[in-house]
């Protein structure tokens, strides 16, 4: 009984010491301590009779027969004795004794699974989700088993708005390497080298990834009773958004939609898109409730609300043009990622961009988002179209593409640099479309730099092919932002 309790519930050692002040002798421990010591020292001097092990945890000896060890200490194990191993320390000490087998591991096996940076059993997508979480920052990293090859690993490192995955292979003699001309005896040594010499892989390796609970890919559908909407944050063309709580403890944003407003095919496309998209400037999906009324789409909560309300508030009104440029660059980063994934947003507007601490911005509301299967997506059903934000070909013919999102991005730039003014103020939807067909374009906002206004105008070109890509927009705006920052110094 004592051996079982001490082995399986070692965290109650103090209790076991009170119950059993004198340790029962495990089976196989017939030799006296002096005999064990003399025998083990002799055997340890012969490599063929001992194996090197590593202590996984601290272990405090409870009798003369046992050996006190510290986590990470190297031991020569002479033999197994029941649930124990007879071991001597490799550091030159003559100490010898018994250690429970569940406290040690053979050093020939990779001893890193209890390292803070090692994540066992997670996929490439889950690694990206963890590294992009709000708890982690650029330079965060983790090592995980390879999904493709057994006995190989991957080093995943977050670099600003993307994650780079480096394949870690092993040589014939068991060494680890990312680059063939540099191999290391352990993953710890490999990490130490690339932390000091990160330029070899062009990726700073700075902080072990912060661990947190990941939702199972099979657990997106959650019980409606787990969520409690508390305060209405806003209402868009395609549903309401509420601040709420998850299981009474975790703040979340809850988007509600009526079953009658969407068909099941559209809904499933939206959810699949949300699941697959991971980027620092996109809102993160937590869960969905599609059974019953209304539908819930549960995402992370951004404390400062939507961008339109924020830049029109007292806090937003004091933002400088540099702050506004920072916002535009973040939105461009998120949209460039969507474009790379061939996802058309179809409802890009300041009201669908959320703001958090430190002016962080994330694109939200994929109520009209669709994976672009063909060159254009043309829905057959009629939907509410926000005409003043929508490209003419989409408003007139429901012909949506990545380039129609570019047009909408130009309107977002206008909203940002006017601190939330409505575009085409005083015009009806019909008048807007008529004026656009005659060449009218919104004027330059007072706070908008001239070169940014030129970018706006390029977003509103009649010919879709003549509009810039989001990758081009991102690069140009980042360059302008860098120049403005240098001018301020």
UniProtKB/TrEMBL annotation:
Write out the ranges of the annotated region (Disordered): 26-45
Span of domain Protein kinase: 227-484
What residue spans carry the Polar residues bias annotation? 27-45
Q: Which Pfam families match?
A: PK_Tyr_Ser-Thr, SH2, SH3_9
- Protein residues bound to ATP: 255
So what family is this one in? Belongs to the protein kinase superfamily. Tyr protein kinase family.
A molecular-function term among this protein's GO annotations: ATP binding
Look at the named UniProt entry and state the broad enzyme category this protein falls under: transferase
Catalytic reaction list = L-tyrosyl-[protein] + ATP = O-phospho-L-tyrosyl-[protein] + ADP + H(+)
Assigned EC number: 2.7.10.2
> What name does the UniProt record give this protein?
Tyrosine-protein kinase
């Amino acid at each position: 009984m004592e051996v079982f309790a001490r082995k399986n519930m070692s965290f109650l050692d103090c209790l076991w010491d009170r119950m059993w002040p004198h340790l029962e002798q495990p089976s196989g421990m017939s030799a006296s301590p002096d005999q064990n010591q003399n025998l083990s020292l002799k055997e340890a001097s012969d490599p063929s009779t001992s194996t090197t092990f590593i202590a996984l945890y601290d272990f405090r000896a409870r009798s003369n027969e046992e050996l006190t060890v510290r986590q990470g200490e190297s031991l020569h194990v002479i033999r197994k004795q029941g649930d124990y191993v007879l071991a001597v320390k490799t550091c030159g000490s003559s100490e010898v004794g018994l250690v429970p087998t569940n406290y040690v591991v053979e050093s020939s096996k990779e001893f890193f699974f209890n390292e803070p940076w090692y994540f066992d059993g997670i996929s490439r997508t889950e690694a990206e989700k963890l590294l992009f979480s709000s708890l982690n920052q650029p330079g965060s990293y983790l090592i995980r088993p390879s999904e493709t090859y057994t006995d190989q690993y991957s080093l995943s490192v977050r670099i600003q708005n993307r994650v780079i995955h480096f394949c870690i292979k092993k040589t014939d003699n068991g060494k680890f390497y990312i680059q063939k001309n540099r191999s290391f005896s352990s993953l710890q040594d490999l990490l130490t080298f690339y932390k000091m010499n990160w330029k070899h892989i062009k990726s700073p390796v700075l902080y072990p990834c912060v661990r947190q609970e990941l939702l199972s890919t099979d657990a997106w559908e959650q019980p409606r009773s787990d969520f409690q909407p508390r305060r209405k944050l806003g209402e868009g063309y395609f549903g309401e958004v509420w601040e709420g709580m998850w299981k009474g403890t975790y703040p979340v944003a809850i988007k509600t939609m009526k079953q009658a407003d969407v068909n099941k095919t559209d809904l499933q496309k939206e959810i699949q898109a949300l699941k697959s998209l991971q980027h620092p400037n996109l809102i993160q999906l937590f869960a969905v409730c599609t059974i019953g009324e209304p539908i819930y789409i549960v995402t992370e909560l951004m404390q400062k609300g939507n961008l339109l309300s924020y830049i029109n508030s007292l806090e937003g009104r004091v933002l400088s043009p540099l702050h506004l440029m920072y916002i535009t660059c973040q939105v461009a980063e998120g949209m460039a990622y969507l474009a790379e994934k061939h996802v058309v947003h179809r409802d890009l507007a300041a009201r669908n961009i959320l703001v958090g601490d430190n002016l962080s911005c994330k694109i939200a509301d994929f109520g009209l988002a669709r994976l672009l299967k063909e060159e254009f997506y043309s829905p057959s059903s009629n939907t509410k179209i926000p005409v003043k934000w929508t490209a003419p070909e989409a408003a007139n013919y429901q012909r949506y593409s990545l380039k129609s999102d570019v047009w909408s991005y130009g309107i977002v730039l206008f909203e940002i640099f006017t601190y939330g003014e409505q575009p085409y103020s005083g015009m009806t939807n019909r008048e807007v479309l008529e004026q656009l067909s005659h060449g009218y374009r919104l004027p330059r906002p007072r706070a908008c730099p001239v070169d940014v206004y030129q970018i706006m105008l390029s977003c509103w070109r009649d010919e879709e092919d003549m509009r810039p890509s989001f990758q081009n927009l991102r690069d140009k705006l980042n360059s302008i932002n860098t120049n403005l920052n240098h001018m301020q110094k």
